[in-house]
Design brief:
142 residues, mainly alpha, 2 domains, 6 helices, globular
Length: 142
């Protein structure tokens, strides 16, 4: 990601312009806590790659991101294997657990098909989220 990729404000939101799988462009709003981290990574720079590799000064690639995540997980004492893809699973599962509608989670994940988003949901068998609870509350007038 370039510093210039998140400089725009759109309808009151700071946004990031991404190019995803299949070279599909996407625009994603940036929350305040994430923006604070991005600004800390940026420092005094106004252009160029947001995250630099310490030795070369080049932007990180997929392998660098994977190594960074596994190193951070190890330092944090997380015993299981963590990868960028497992973080994607966790993001979708947590969004759905937080009550984000499937359609909005699908947009967040930039999936063309909601079935793909459902596949990423590790808690799809969670009875606490079962639709019968919402239906019962609705019928009861809650």
């Amino acid at each position: 990601m370039l510093i210039e990729d998140y400089a725009e404000t759109l309808r009151g939101h700071r946004v990031s312009h991404l190019v995803g799988k299949g070279n599909k462009p996407a625009t994603m709003p940036i929350t305040v806590p994430v923006l604070q981290v991005l600004e800390a990574c940026r420092g005094q720079r106004t252009t160029g790659p947001l995250i630099l590799r310490p030795v070369s000064g080049n932007a990180i690639d997929r392998r660098d991101a994977y190594r960074m995540i596994t190193r951070i997980a190890k330092v944090a004492g997380i015993p299981c294997h963590i990868s960028p893809h497992s973080l994607r699973h966790a993001t979708i599962t947590n969004a759905l657990d937080a009550g984000v509608p499937l359609r909005d989670a699908q947009i967040l994940a930039r999936h063309a098909d909601p079935r793909t988003t459902e596949h990423y949901d590790r808690a799809r068998g969670n009875l606490d989220r079962h639709g019968v609870h919402f239906l019962t509350a609705y019928v009861a007038g809650a």
